[in-house]
Amino acid sequence: MVKMAEVMEESTAAQAAPVRPRPRIALLSNPRSTGNIAQLPRIREYCADHPDVFHYEVEHAHQIGQAMRAIAQVRPKVLAINGGDGTVQAALTELHNGGHFGDNPPPVAVLPSGKTNLIALDLGARGDPIQTLERLIALAQSDDLAPHTVARELIALRHGVPGTDEMPVIGMFLGGAGLADIMLYCRDKIYPLGLPNGLAHAITGFVVFLKLLFGMKSKHFPPDPKPLAVSVRDQKEQISGRFSLMAVTTLEKLLLSGELHGERRGTLKLIAVEEKLGSVLRAFFAALAGTLGRNHVRGVHFEESDEITIEGDSSSLILDGETFSAETGRPIRLSPAAPLSFVKLAA
């Protein structure tokens, strides 16, 4: 009888205890992301007050697999990522390779944080990350998220021997040649000064302009770009030389927020701008006018393909924050990855 009474008492207590609702949003945060240093205390406080959000923090890339396994148990309606493009790239790679959600991964949202936010910009996330979270919660409360999601093609990067079982790295934007050198210069030389992002980018742009305009060389300037050879499937001739800018992307918008227009011959969009001031200026104005990729521009190469190979002499390439090196005889191979659903926050 005593045991029966104890069971009945435990059952009554369990019924009286409040049932915590299943979180609609899983938020993956990287506290080491520079843009999160000021914002993370606010985000932690917000998540503590909102049971709709399951907050998981990681400090290293190798922890993201464990984070995804925990998030998969929660079964959220939206996976939000709070970090720079490097954090997003690591999370997309784990989503693609880990299989934690089976065939139905939740749509991904990107909070506007971190030093670089090309992916967040493409998806319409701007301003305060708390406001973005509030909007995501409101969207997740609806029965149908489909009107607010968009499929995005992804880049699969492989750096090993063709034909092996190498797991690809997944991303949405790859910068190479002079662009990669500029990105590394800004990250290693300008960001440590502690300046606001906008000012850091303006200083970097001014230094690059001086270098292009006057041919100035200094250890305080970005290095000269190394030669690259780019092969595009179904194109007989390589695109080779030194380039002030080279990018491969699936994004609709680049740094100038100009859309890339092409003939849709492939998923991956390649742009390579020759290392000449005139070529850079023509590419700049074509981007502003929205004609980049639509009209031929001298000194500017634009291709669309489903297979791109990049080879060089230890030339740096950056895929959403992670740096790779294109070597002679060991090229970087790019191909499309399975598309993923993203939450589109733009009006």
Could you explain how this protein is built, in words?
Helix 7 (177-190) packs across helix 8 (197-214). The protein has 2 domains: 2-152, Rossmann fold; 173-319, Tumour Suppressor Smad4 (Sandwich), CATH 2.60.200. It is an alpha+beta fold and 347 residues long. The chain contains 9 helices and 16 strands.
Layout of strands and helices, then pairs:
Elements (H helix, E strand, L loop, with lengths): L1 H15 L8 E5 L10 H9 L4 E5 L6 H11 L3 E5 L2 H14 L9 E3 L7 H5 L6 H12 L8 E10 L10 E3 L1 E4 H14 L6 H18 L13 E5 L6 E3 L1 E7 L18 E7 L2 H13 L10 E6 L2 E5 L2 E5 L2 E5 L5 E12 L4
Helix pairs in contact: 7-8
CATH architecture of the largest domain: 3-Layer(aba) Sandwich
Order of helices and strands: HEHEHEHEHHEEEHHEEEEHEEEEE
| CATH domain class of the largest domain | Alpha Beta
Q: Could you describe the largest sheet, including whether it forms a barrel?
A: 6 strands, antiparallel
Q: Runs with pLDDT <50, length 5+? A: 1-19
* Number of individual domains: 2
Radius of gyration: 23 Å
Overall body shape = globular
Number of strands: 16
Helix content: 25-40%
Span between N and C termini?
Answer: 64 Å
Strand order of the largest sheet: 6-5-16-13-8-9
The fold-level CATH name of the largest domain is Rossmann fold
Structural class: alpha+beta
Count of individual helical segments: 9
